[in-house]
Amino acid sequence: xxxxxxxxxxxxxxxxxxxxxxxxxxxxxxxxxxxxxxxxxxxxxxxxxxxxxxxxxxxxxxxxxxxxxxxxxxxxxxxxxxxxxxxxxxxxxxxxxxxxxxxxxxxxxxxxxxxxxxxxxxxxxxxxxxxxxxxxxxxxxxxxxxxxxxxxxxxxxxxxxxxxxxxxxxxxxxxxxxxxxxxxxxxxxxxxxxxxxxxxxxxxxxxxxxxxxxxxxxxxxxxxxxxxxxxxxxxxxxxxxxxxxxxxxxxxxxxxxxxxxxxxxxxxxxxxxxxxxxxxxxxxxxxxxxxxxxxxxxxxxxxxxxxxxxxxxxxxxxx
Length: 319
Hints:
Elements: H1 5-19, E1 29-32, H2 38-48, E2 55-57, E3 63-65, E4 71-75, E5 89-93, E6 144-156, E7 160-169, E8 184-189, E9 192-193, E10 230-232, E11 246-248, E12 251-256, E13 263-272, E14 279-284, E15 289-290, H3 294-318
Antiparallel strand pairs: 1-4, 2-6, 3-6, 4-5, 5-14, 6-13, 7-11, 7-12, 7-14, 7-15, 8-9, 8-13, 10-11
């Protein structure tokens, strides 16, 4: 958060009392990494790859930069109105991965815990004091902190892959249009960031996907950008069972890669300028999949047709 918790309470308490939901939402279950080892990074990497003989993970290539507790796996995220938008996958954050759920001592929103900004009353989240990283230099000139990066190599047999993700942030909605830099993230393949607003060269962030601001409550529509791709989660209103104040809808990227060669993919996220209000990148499990070329599809279809023809001939021969 970029403003004090007491100030946010005074702004939103009345709205919370009027709109307090009936019944609790089902929060995602988060399992933080136990350490930042290559083996732990490989486990995350393999959980993202779709089963396919056309895409192979390069053994021993996985690496992780950042606080281990900043990342992990999640399940039960939910794709309904109150869910986080992805049922299961890998979460990378700039704080403690558990703030993807509602881990504060009271229902609703509380800032997660970083090195200089404490969590809500009784919150047991782990401080994140990781430094920034130059990987994000093309996305912000403000400097970064609490960087988290998962990288690994793979070999595809095709020239394109796809993957799906959601971005969420505590920067919503008080930083939107405030002039204060929002947190950054990227999905870099062979050094190029493909986490862009569809049809543009604009990186996705709280500054480019929102329904307006600044405001410490619900989005106010002022200066909204790509509002149809945003899901609001104002403090204390429990629209989504997470401490994060806003989510994008799920994006699916189509990314060019070097066929039959080693490629590098890096999922990275970092606080911009400060280390207070934090953000999260949620990547759908098994979503990194190859996209066969049209000619490959044609061969596959022809193969299936040929198999079917042979099977029919054999059945006729038995009659």
